[in-house]
Write a structure and sequence with these properties.
The complex is a heterodimer of chains A (314) and B (516).
Chain A lengths: L1 H9 L1 H18 L4 H6 L5 H11 L5 H12 L14 H36 L4 H15 L2 H15 L15 H35 L2 H8 L4 H29 L3 H6 L5 H10 L3 H29 L7
Chain B lengths: L1 H23 L12 E6 L14 H10 L4 E3 L5 E3 L2 E6 L5 E6 L13 H14 L9 E8 L2 E6 L6 H6 L28 E7 L3 E6 L24 E6 L3 H10 L4 E5 L4 H5 L4 E16 L8 H10 L2 H9 L3 E2 L25 H11 L5 E7 L3 H16 L3 E7 L1 H9 L6 E7 L8 H4 L11 H12 L3 H17 L3 E3 L2 E9 L2 E2 L13 E2 L2
Parallel strand pairs in B: 1-10, 1-11, 14-15, 14-16
Antiparallel strand pairs in B: 2-3, 4-5, 5-7, 6-7, 8-9, 9-10, 11-18, 12-16, 12-17, 12-18, 13-18, 19-20
The chains are: A mainly alpha (314), B alpha+beta (516).
Chain lengths: 314, 516
């Protein structure tokens, strides 16, 4: 199995190469000049030329790419034009915020999604089932930023219960940190909760029809034993895939929610970097998002083995 | 069983690895009542805090609390002393001797001397984007521990304004900053607040500098005079989303917020815990002609000039929050003039059509480049497009974000009209570069204008300079060089508990305190 892990990790390399080339091309092909953004629109052409030379932008595109790649494979993603600090540092500074939001969003979506899915499956076609499915439909359809803005209006402005934005790390002030995370986590997590609920329901329905479940019931096992000990574990495989995808998406940076809540995560960083044409930062952020996504997928694949002992890794 | 343990173990290692990475992340790196923390929500995120690094608004909005220059501007945009208490000009007008105030301390405790000033000026002249404004400077010499002399190669009437200009401020830094490149100098100044911490996208924190010595006791307004630091700390928080700024004000998370959308005015003015202030005017949107393309034709430019209805443009672009006025300087500034104003806001489609005919325009496409980063520019462009269509011009909009539009502007074959804006100019010479053939970006070339600007550069007396710049403005209108649209107002809001705040060109949180 170690071999499997190693093979998968090696498989990250071509993915990164593709992302590197694509992000490089995309960013450079969009009109805009970071030197001009930095100096302001009134800068003289000479000043802009000088700064471009300093930034290495006067070289040809292939040359710039090779130079950047050469450094990137050594772990040096260059320096952000605007923040004046190494790209890796800028990204790592944002990671804790993004991780906190992603984790809390995932916790919320699991706490809501899985029980809802179980209830809907066990009480299929009942009133419970309808409520869960309609709510799930709403969760998938409602845009996260709209939900965020609506919650700010109600819970922050009208009721004053929660802050409308900002960020406090939980290790600096636990309760304040949680308070700033609640609304963005719910905005982000509701779509994932809906997806998880639906997947759990359909997967559970499959499993509940199986013979061994009927046997367990016939044995006299109560519903917690049947549902949780037997059915749920076996229903989890497809759900884990959904959870994995959800976490990958959350970690990649929830751009719009971060902007609505003024949350300093990776998503907002990328948007600002694009607006400023901060090429090294955009490229570094895209690479990081790809790495995270691949690693999360690997973790998900490994988790399958925990839930289904029949799965082997070769 | 073993396999399961292996899998869980691998997973645990993976998670531990991520956990370690997070833990290893650098720790993340705010009568008058003294005390408390002011939290200000600003739209723009500072790309840098190095005062010599650029003309971006956020750099000076925060920076002017931390740094000071030899000179600055008062509320009428006149040059006044700041770190220099007085100065003398030689008879030939080419040598300026500045006498520095004594006993002024940097935030690191050291006293400011002429050595620090020379080092700062040298650094500015080496790396600042605005260094060309000091082109006339030949020598910068230390003439005493608190005396510095600058010798120019020619008489430059705009020299003092260039020293005082807060846009890309010639901030006086300790001499250790001398050879540090952009962003690498320590953020140490002499201002009422000292730099504490900058976490990009989270906040910039500054703390009251207890040893601050204000220049004089008079409240001259603007950026000068006695500046008091009442709050213990100010936190500048970048909040680009207008809705978030409004919400933050209402929930009390922010004590101050800039650039509030006019759509939020009704709900904010009704809120007794808040005060809404109008910053009027803040800038004026402009339209440039590309003089190397179709608009080489004077008649064609005049046709556009005749067609535009500025009242309508202002109504749509800024919900009518503004002032229709021909001045390239605001009424509030000593440089204000209405010269050439007859050609402004003509709203005369009949005349415009006639001029189009005389220009021989046959429906050729006109490329109008605008951007969505500045909402009012985009809206203005749409209205102008309609107004020009009505007189028979075939105008198409090219819409980009701001950096994109600037990149397109560089290619003179890709645009005919371009939207932009002028922020408040502190001195009329700030607009010179638009109209000089060597520095213009829209291809304007007129020897008459060059002569006028040369004369202005040599006219040291205010009255002489004023008359010359009046002629310049008249020429701008007669020659339809570029168009000014309207005086653009913006809205700011603050907690009702905040006292002492006066809206001006840029956010000023000195002399401001929070009631209990």
């Amino acid at each position: 199995m170690i071999l499997y892990v190693v093979r998968r990790l090696v498989g990250v390399v071509p993915v990164l190469a593709l992302v590197a080339v694509t992000s490089f091309l995309l960013v450079y092909l969009v009109p805009g000049d970071p030197a001009m953004v930095m100096l302001g629109s009134d800068a003289t052409p000479q000043q802009i030329q000088e700064l471009r030379a300093q930034m290495g932008l006067d070289r040809s595109l292939p040359e710039q790419f090779v130079l950047w790649l050469g450094q990137a494979v050594r772990g040096n993603l260059g320096e952000s034009f605007f923040l004046g600090r190494p790209v890796t540092q800028a990204l790592v500074e944002r990671l804790p915020a993004t991780l906190q939001l992603a984790v809390l969003s995932l916790v919320f979506s699991l706490l809501i999604g899985i029980p809802a899915g179980i209830v809907a499956a066990v009480r299929q076609n009942s009133w419970w089932d309808e409520v869960v499915m309609v709510t799930a439909m709403g969760g998938i359809s409602v845009p996260s930023f709209w939900l965020g803005l609506a919650m700010i209006l109600v819970f922050s402005v009208q009721l004053g219960w929660l802050p409308s934005g900002g960020y406090t790390p939980v290790w600096e002030d636990f309760w304040q940190g949680i308070r700033t995370l609640i609304l963005p986590a719910i905005s982000l997590g509701s779509m994932q909760a809906a997806l998880i609920a639906r997947m759990t329901r359909s997967s559970m329905l499959e499993v509940l029809r199986q013979d061994y479940v009927r046997t367990a019931k016939a044995k006299g096992l109560g519903w917690p034993g049947v549902t949780l000990r037997h059915a749920l574990k076996n229903a989890m495989i497809p759900v884990i895939t959904t959870i994995g995808t959800a976490f990958g998406v959350l970690l990649g940076g929830a751009v719009i929610v971060e902007i609505v809540f003024t949350y300093p995560g990776l998503g907002r960083l990328v948007v600002l970097a694009v607006q400023r044409r901060d090429y090294p930062l955009v490229q570094g952020a895209l690479l990081l998002a790809s790495v995270i996504y691949v690693l999360v997928n690997l973790a998900v694949d490994l988790l399958y083995g925990v839930f289904d002992p029949r799965i082997t890794y070769e | 069983m073993l396999r399961r343990r292996l899998v869980l173990g691998t997973l645990a290692l993976l998670l531990a690895g991520i956990g370690l990475a997070v833990a290893a992340a650098p720790t993340m790196a705010g009568a008058p009542i003294t005390g408390g923390t002011l939290r200000a929500a600003l739209t723009a995120s500072a790309p840098s805090l190095d005062p010599h690094s650029g003309t971006h608004l956020a750099i000076r909005e925060i920076g002017l609390h931390i740094f000071e220059g030899l000179l600055t501007f008062d509320s009428k945009f006149q040059v006044v002393p700041q770190l220099a208490e007085r100065w003398e000009v030689s008879r030939d007008g080419k040598a300026y001797t500045f006498h520095l105030r004594k006993g002024v301390k940097f935030h690191n405790g050291r006293e400011m001397t002429a050595e620090d000033v020379k080092a700062s000026v040298d650094r500015f002249r080496a790396i600042a984007p605005r260094r060309n404004e000091l082109d006339a400077v030949d020598k910068v010499e230390i003439a005493g521990p608190t005396t510095i002399r600058m010798t120019l190669t020619r008489v430059d009437a705009a020299f003092l304004a260039a020293i005082a200009n807060p846009i890309c401020q010639l901030a006086i830094l300790p001499k250790e900053a001398a050879d540090k490149p952009i962003n690498k100098a320590d953020l140490v100044g002499t201002g009422p607040y000292k730099f504490v911490e900058w976490i990009p996208d989270r906040w910039v924190r500054v703390a009251r500098f207890v040893d601050y010595k204000p220049e004089g006791k008079a409240a001259v307004g603007g950026l000068g005079g006695a500046r008091h630091a009442y709050a213990d700390e100010i936190r500048f928080v970048p909040v680009p989303e207008p809705g978030a700024r409004v919400a933050g004000l209402q929930t009390g998370e922010y004590d101050f917020a800039d650039f509030l959308p006019s759509a939020s005015m009704p709900q904010l003015t009704g809120d007794r815990s808040l005060r809404v202030v109008r910053l009027g005017p803040q800038n004026y949107p402009t339209v440039y002609f590309n003089h190397t393309g179709r608009f080489k034709s004077l008649k064609l430019r005049q046709a556009v000039q005749a067609a535009l209805n500025m009242d309508e443009i202002m109504q749509v672009a800024n919900d009518g929050d503004g002032r229709v006025d021909p001045g390239f300087y605001f009424k509030e500034q000593v440089w204000y003039t209405t010269a050439g104003g007859k050609l402004y806001n003509q709203k005369n489609p009949a005349r415009a059509k006639q001029l189009l005919q005389e220009a021989g325009y046959k429906g050729e496409p006109i490329a109008f480049v605008t951007n969505t980063s500045y909402d009012y520019m985009y809206k203005a462009a749409q209205v102008i497009q309609e107004q020009l269509k009505k007189i028979g011009m075939n105008v198409t909009l090219g819409v980009y974000d701001w950096p994109g539009s600037l990149a397109v502007r560089k290619d003179m074959t890709k645009w005919d009209l371009f939207t932009s804006s002028h922020s408040t100019r502190f001195d009329p010479s700030a607009n010179d570069f638009y109209f000089r053939a060597q520095t213009t970006f829209f291809g304007y070339n007129n020897p008459k204008m060059e002569t006028l600007l040369d004369k202005a550069g040599a006219a040291v007396r205010f009255d002489d300079r004023f008359r010359i710049y009046e002629e310049v403005q008249r020429l701008i209108y007669d020659d339809a060089i570029m168009l000014k649209l309207y005086d653009h107002y913006t809205w700011q809001g603050h907690s009702a508990k905040l006292q002492g705040y006066g809206p001006w060109v840029m956010v000023r949180l000195w002399d401001v305190w929070r009631e209990k």
